[in-house]
Design goal:
Elements: H1 15-29, H2 36-47, H3 53-67, H4 77-91, H5 109-115, H6 120-133, E1 138-143, E2 146-151, E3 162-165, E4 171-173, H7 175-186, H8 200-216, H9 222-234, H10 241-252, H11 256-271, H12 275-290
Antiparallel strand pairs: 1-2, 2-3, 3-4
Helix pairs in contact: 1-2, 3-6, 8-9, 9-10, 10-11, 11-12
Region (Disordered): 1-21
Family: Belongs to the UPF0162 family.
InterPro entries: SirB1_N
């Protein structure tokens, strides 16, 4: 794969193919050991019909190919981090920039592998999957506002672990660097608990949250917001409020009966803990049904 920058205008798959992809996504998410790359590629196929089965296989093979170019057991965590930085950030130029936050393809693994550009979390997925295939002790670290990669033991003293920032081409981070990333992105105070390894399903949910944020800034792309919410709902653990978000998206897209029914179902759930909120949701459902007349 080469680093092209051709315009990206995805076409959604047919309803039949989309249903099959979503079924596979749900099965993978509920498996004993969910495969992060597989989930990200299935997500990409739901977004972009051009990503067919051959394309999914090619993306997996590209991750294998990159892993095969790493040195054999280079040493401890720091040596692994340097090896990934030199290969992916140096030789192949994987990195990110502010412009990547404005592109949907920055959240799709198959496009990130082609463009070698993406959001911090997708570039981290590339680092994780390449390193994992080569046998490195690697995991994702979901710092507030900025995703990075950790090398070494998943717990224990920070000094035994090494952090790298794929968005910055794999720059190795000191503890002070990590603190600056957190405070600079969110204003929050840094806490050691923020260095905990990210579960693969939490990574996928965060990717989908990024897609939803992209679509929210573009009201004309409610189609993207809808599939991102629907995939999020297929994960074993997700915020209950996503059902409310899906219902409102259906109403916005003119599916008034379906949206109203989902609003009413959500009101029943909310009513157990917040009667006033449930009444507000029921009023939204009534307003949606009125639009049918």
């Amino acid at each position: 794969m080469s680093g092209g920058r051709s315009p990206f205008s995805p076409r959604p798959p047919s309803p039949g193919r989309s249903a099959g992809l979503r079924r596979r996504f749900a099965e993978e998410a509920r498996s004993g050991r969910p495969d992060l790359a597989a989930l990200c590629l299935l997500l990409g196929a739901v977004a972009d019909d051009a990503l067919d089965e051959d394309g999914i296989d090619a993306a997996q093979l590209e991750l294998d190919r990159l892993a095969g170019q790493l040195p054999f057991r280079p040493g401890g965590p720091a040596a692994w981090a340097v090896a990934l930085r030199d290969l992916l950030g140096g030789r192949y130029g994987f990195e990110g920039s502010a412009a990547d936050y404005r592109r949907l393809e920055s959240s799709l693994l198959h496009q990130v592998l082609v463009r070698r550009r993406g959001l911090p979390i997708l570039l981290s997925v590339v680092w994780i999957e390449v390193a994992r295939r080569a046998g490195a002790p690697v995991y994702g670290v979901a710092l507030p506002g900025h995703f990075v990669v950790g090398f070494g033991p998943e717990s224990g003293p920070y000094g035994e672990r090494v952090l790298a920032d794929p968005f910055a081409g794999g720059r190795l981070l000191t503890g002070a660097d990590a603190e600056l990333l957190v405070t600079g992105a969110t204003g929050e105070a840094f806490a050691p608990s923020m260095l905990s390894p990210a579960d693969p399903l939490d990574v996928v949910l965060r990717v989908l949250n990024n897609v939803r944020a992209w679509a929210e800034a573009r009201p004309e792309r409610s189609d993207v917001a809808l599939w991102a919410v629907e995939l999020s709902l297929l994960l074993p653990s997700h915020p209950a409020r996503l059902r409310y978000e899906r219902a409102r998206l259906l109403v916005r897209r003119g599916e008034f009966a379906a949206g109203a029914a989902e609003l009413e179902a959500y009101a029943e759930v909310v009513g157990a803990v917040d009667a006033a909120a449930a009444e507000r949701v029921r009023a939204e459902a009534s307003a949606a049904r009125a639009l049918l007349n």
